Amino acid sequence: MKDGVESDILKTLADMQQVNSLLFSYSYRRRNPGRFTPDSLMDLTLDLPCRCPRCGEGIFKMNSNWKTTKVLGLLMLANFLIYFVVEVSRSYGQGQDIYNRRKLTPKKFWKKPEFSPAFWNREQERLDDIYYLPLANGSEAPHDFRGIPRWLNRTSPCEPDSRVTTEIEDFKSLPQRFQDFLLYMVCRSYPLITDAPNLCSEPPYLLLAVKSIAPHFDRRQAIRESWGRAGILDGQRIATVFLLGNTAATDHFPDLSDMVKHEAALYGDVLQWDYRDTFFNLTLKEVLFLEWFGTHCASAKYVFKCDDDIFVNTRHMLAYLGNFSVSKTQDLFIGDVITNAGPHRTKHLKYYIPESVFRGVYPPYAGGGGFLYSGNLGLRLRMISRLVTLYPIDDVFTGMCLKRLGLVPEKHMGFKTFDIEEKHRENPCAYKSLILVHPRSPQDMIKIWSWINDPKAKCYMKTTLDMKGAMRSSKSK
Q: Per the structure, how many domains does the chain have?
């Protein structure tokens, strides 16, 4: 039996050698078409001419017995099966590769910050994880992004958030103003007591938004009669609105609610919300104004946000803005910018911030005496402010919002939030080239405005420099 097997193997090898010789000749003939004529049915089938036209001798003649044909068929079938297996394997491998690529998690654009022991930092990290980081990474906007997140905005009447008493280790030793701020930090929506529905019925070129409190009737009236007079000035429409909270008996204020209502009805320029008007709630006033602006006065080209104890050279501000088209000032945000600052740790200071509440450095921000920005940027500030945890200092909070937008406020030398030299304060010409001076009394406002508008005053108004860099785009690093 062994000899029979060996005999079959040797015969098969001989047949394969014959087939290989056949395939070689076939390949040669295929590369030299037209030089041969067919000789047999097998030659015709394979398109293999069998005789040399010059010598008449046969190159070969296929032995077309059944066994040879069978071996050739098996080889062809084997080649087909090998080809099929290779192609299927390659396709499967490519499918696996595509699947794996889809499963790869893209590298985070923002690095997850380390856990912070400070309460504000922890709250902001939580807000970033849920809402801001997906947005920054180019993902679909979160469901609640177009409104303030529900867990961050307890609607009025707002109840104190008792969890802060256990999450801040030294809560009981903090000043009362801090305890009050932290207990109500999750509240951002309050109803309007008085509204100004017709303020922006005609779209203003410049909206003057003045932070005030109920008892400051004299300041508001002085502004109305001087630099904040509503109407047409130098060919541009000006609108002025005063932003108030509610002065409570808790803070030893007299009840002035009827007087404020009368003022609002008389001038139609007062917005008053039903929240406690305190220094730490100025940030709340900021976000409430941005929400109102986006809903009721989004057509304003520019917004000037300020305190009620300053003097503003509105004419010079308009001249400054007139140097540029609105389309060139989409990212405009100018003021008296403070950089490389951080929280004060001395308890008796007005701006004291305990380490248990916030740790880190402040982004560049403009002093709250006043700053100027485009209406387009105001709408973006409104949107991004919803994703920044309330901070007890409103100037710093606005700087945080700008940083989230990838913008840096630009310092303008016309903003004098720390006053000018005393020797120049009674010189009318000193105010011609300025935009803002702080502080000034109601009487000062009216007096300086009369100087500015005196046609006999021959003062050189410094030409506004190129606004290049009035707002630099800067990716947060």
A: 2
